[in-house]
Task: inverse folding
């Protein structure tokens, strides 16, 4: 089969289309013909070596397609089923062997590319809004990169739970998308410092929660944007790793909470994957959750896909056609 391989870590150019042996499904696994592979920021961290992986490897942690065969002990899915999956290495490929417990069946009303788009960014938005900091009508949530893949979904889920949402993003086009997703206020943080603006919009009180996936450039001001006992949910580092900091700052800023969650800990078993996946699918089928597909590129343009994502040129989901 054809797959993207990374032989050494580096820039987007290390993503090379190669011919590799077809995978065989082991016990508890299903062999899936990948139709769409999702591109996520975590793929960039794997490619650059920020998150370590044994070399060589096939990047990509999510996708959607059709089950071709199942390994021993698999009864959850059968050949012919349309499925999608989160957090499984090796998805930038024509075929993937996926643990069956991670597979979410795609309902007839959900297109394959929408299914793929919901696996990492959708499930992340779901756990952030429902589990890490369950939002309610009394909350003011600051969502950074609100027009990104995760951001647009998180804004919609946060609004559904009744929170007031302040989004940040870089351009006016992105601001319009964040507003269309339901953000009550949008700050273009590349033009205007966001912390004083959050304070102004909240009459000096601050946000109850900040969802920060940008990291290095936003972390300090995110802490300063919280009201006492508020929570900073640092869930990514699109701008780079956060500098070390003194936990005493959490006390002096008002007994704040800081958490650094990861999707793997919020999709621990089949029940949790099923719960998050099926809720997202239901919302899409009911027309309550919009999934914006930024673009679909052929597999051999994986390097271009990474350039777009890292270059802040995407809003919504970027996919590869395998
Ligand atoms: N912990 C978890 O479980 C988990 C799961 C999924 C994703 N994540 C994290 O969430 C973040 C977003 O992931 P995503 O796939 O949805 O990507 P994305 O938000 O669609 O893309 C990243 C966005 O970050 C913003 N950004 C700000 N400074 C940047 C910089 N210096 N370089 C690049 N981008 C910058 C850009 O939006 P503006 O142009 O509007 O600033 C850019 O579009 C990533 O950090 C990812 O690792 C974490």
Result:
């Amino acid at each position: 089969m054809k797959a993207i391989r990374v032989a050494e870590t580096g820039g987007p150019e290390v993503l090379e289309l190669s011919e590799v042996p077809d995978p065989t499904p082991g016990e508890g696994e299903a062999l899936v013909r990948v139709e769409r592979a999702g591109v996520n920021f975590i793929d960039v961290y794997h490619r650059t070596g920020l998150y370590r992986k044994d070399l060589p490897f096939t990047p990509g942690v999510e996708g959607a397609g059709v089950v071709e065969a199942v390994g021993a002990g698999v009864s959850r899915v059968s050949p012919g089923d349309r499925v999608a999956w989160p957090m499984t290495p090796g998805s930038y490929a024509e075929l993937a062997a996926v643990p069956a417990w991670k597979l979410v069946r795609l309902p007839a009303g959900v297109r394959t590319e929408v299914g793929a788009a919901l696996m990492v960014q959708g499930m992340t938005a779901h756990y952030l809004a429902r589990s890490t900091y369950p939002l309610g009508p009394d909350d003011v949530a600051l969502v950074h990169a609100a027009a990104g893949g995760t951001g647009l979904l998180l804004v919609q889920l946060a609004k559904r739970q009744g929170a007031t949402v302040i989004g940040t993003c870089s351009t006016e086009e992105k601001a319009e998308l964040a507003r269309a997703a339901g953000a009550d206020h949008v700050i273009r943080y590349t033009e205007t410092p966001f912390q004083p603006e959050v304070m102004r919009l909240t009459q000096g009180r601050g946000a109850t929660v900040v969802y920060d996936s940008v990291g290095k450039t936003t972390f300090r001001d995110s802490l300063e944007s919280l009201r006492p006992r508020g929570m900073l949910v640092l869930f990514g580092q699109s701008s780079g790793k956060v500098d070390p900091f003194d936990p005493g700052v959490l006390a002096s800023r008002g007994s704040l909470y800081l958490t650094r969650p990861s999707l793997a800990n919020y999709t621990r078993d089949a029940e949790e994957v099923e719960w998050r996946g099926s809720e997202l699918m239901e919302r899409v089928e009911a027309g309550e959750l919009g999934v914006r597909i930024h673009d679909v590129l052929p597999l051999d343009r994986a390097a271009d896909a990474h350039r777009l994502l890292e270059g802040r040129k995407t809003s919504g989901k970027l996919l590869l056609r395998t």
Observations:
- The chain is about 30% helix and 25% strand.
- The first helix runs from residue 41 to 48.
- The pocket of NAP is lined by residues 40-42, 120-121, 124, 145, 147-151, 169-170, 174, 213-214, 217, 235-239, 261-263, 309-310, 312, 314 (CB under 6 Å).
- Residues 178 and 305 are 22 Å apart (CA to CA).
